[in-house]
Amino acid sequence: MRTRTLILGLAALLAGCSVLAGDETSPVQQSAPTPTEAAPTLEAPTTPSPLADSPDMTGEGPSEIVLTVWTSEGLSPSSEAPGGQVLVEQLAAFDETHPDIRVEIYVKRSQGPGSTLAYLRTAPPVAPDVLPDVALLDQKALAQATAEELIVPIGSLLDPAIANELYPAARELGTIGEQMVGLPYALEVQHLAYRVTFFQEPPNSFEAILESPVPYVFPAAPEDSVNHTLLLQYMAAVDGNLTDEEGRPVLDADALREVLGFYADARAAEVVDPALFQITDPAETWALYRDRQANLAATTSTLYLAERDQVRNTAVTWTPTPTGDPYALVGGWSWAIVTQDPERQAAAMLLLNFLMNPVNQGTYTQASYWLPTQPAALAVWGDGDPYTGFGDLLLRNARPLPDPSLQSVIGGALQEALEAVLLNDVPPVQAATEAAQSVNPPQEEAP
Questions:
Q1: What is the number of other CB atoms lying within 10 angstroms of the CB of residue 365?
Q2: Average pLDDT, the chain
Q3: Which helix (H) or strand (E) holds 55?
Q4: N or C: which end of the chain has fewer CB within 10 A?
Q5: Residue 82 — pLDDT band, cuts 50, 70, 90?
Q6: Is-contact 136 68, C-beta < 8 A?
Q7: pLDDT band at 21 (very low <50, low <70, confident <90, very high)
Q8: Whether residues 13 and 142 fall in one domain
Q9: Based on the structure, what is the number of domains in the chain?
Q10: What is the pLDDT of residues 191-236, one digit of tens each?
Q11: Strand 6-9 and strand 101-108: pairing?
Q12: pLDDT bucket at 447, cuts 50 / 70 / 90
């Protein structure tokens, strides 16, 4: 039995590199797991495997490739991360079935000076050898790394069969322009939790919220430029269309007036309180619900799945929309290829194909409280998990969060309009008109 996959802290690797000083990441401690039987793997990329002829890269054998992978704190093979042991076992199984590849995992911060993106930016000119072959990036970092050409677009390396099996929203999450740049792996959506004793029907429409016997609690303060509840509801009203035919940001004044009108009515009905502008994080509204200080509250799939056993008489439904139809905004993490070497790219794709096997991805995401990017992986959760069908419904009716640059333009105007209505009693018609005028390109006068 041989288990050679290493889970390390990057600080050990970077010791002595002054450009990368300040990384406080410590090694992840683990005991050697007992490898389980490997789940059936998907086909590798069409590029022939280079492993038989690869050069001696470690001194341990003429055919071994050491594959360096950077991941995040919340998605790591660590006993401190939910599902970490499951990932340890999967990596051990990969190690058993691919004796010519040694995988080394380094856990990185998700933001700030010690983050993966920070190292991808600073290391190439002074310490290129510390760069990983594969990195796990969130949506914003993936967009920035693509714009700065820090990663290799994955579309040309990925088996088309895998891309075709992704949820459409997941595939869109990993695509920038017309190019697939990352392979989405773990997703999160926002939705509602509610106490069933107060509702005969799920409160997932504007009309149902206005008739709610309890207050509706959600983070009204801006997350980045706009709170994601408002952004979702506006996007549901315009079917996700945030740009014109030329790709310029636009706001639909009529659709926004409908959304703002709902909030004006909700305040009058005392089911929405302007004090919600003090809340930014869905973790705060979930804590209010979990601790029985609220009975109808916004949460995220990750928060709910991690603590659903702590709440009783609870059901979930989607964020209320104008029509009551399901709609969700999805964010998450994607695998990105950093190495430019074709041999190492082929080895990296073998690993990603293995992790994306529906059995592997489904087992890991269920244990770690994330949502998988493939319907077949979510099906692995089983019909016995009541969230399986709900999660599938949300992901089939989801769109990715807008590009950060687009979101900042559209979102800022949306947030200002909501605050004008709820805090300053500005009529919804006026607030919607002013928001649209601040965003939309000027109309050309007819000759």
A1: 26
A2: 87
A3: none
A4: C
A5: very high
A6: no
A7: very low
A8: yes
A9: 2
A10: 999 999 999 999 999 999 999 999 999 999 998 899 999 999 999 9
A11: parallel
A12: low
Distances (CA, A) of 89 to 99, 154, 348, 350, 426: 15, 26, 18, 17, 57
**Per-residue CA distances from 372 to 301, 395, 398 (Å):** 11, 9, 13
> What does the block give as tokens for 380?
């692995």
Cα–Cα distance for residue pair 363/302, rounded to 1 Å: 15
Whether 420 and 378 map to the same domain: the answer is: no
- Give the three-state DSSP class for 178: coil
DSSP 309: G
361 and 337 both lie in a single domain:
yes
Residue 303 inside a domain? The answer is yes
Provide CB contacts within 8 A for 65, sequence distance 6+: 51, 54, 57, 100, 101, 102, 343, 344, 347
Domain hosting 298: range is 189-327+401-439
Residue 176 placed within a domain: no
Q: What is the DSSP code (8-state) at residue 36?
A: P
Whether 39 and 109 share a structural domain: yes
**223: DSSP letter:** B
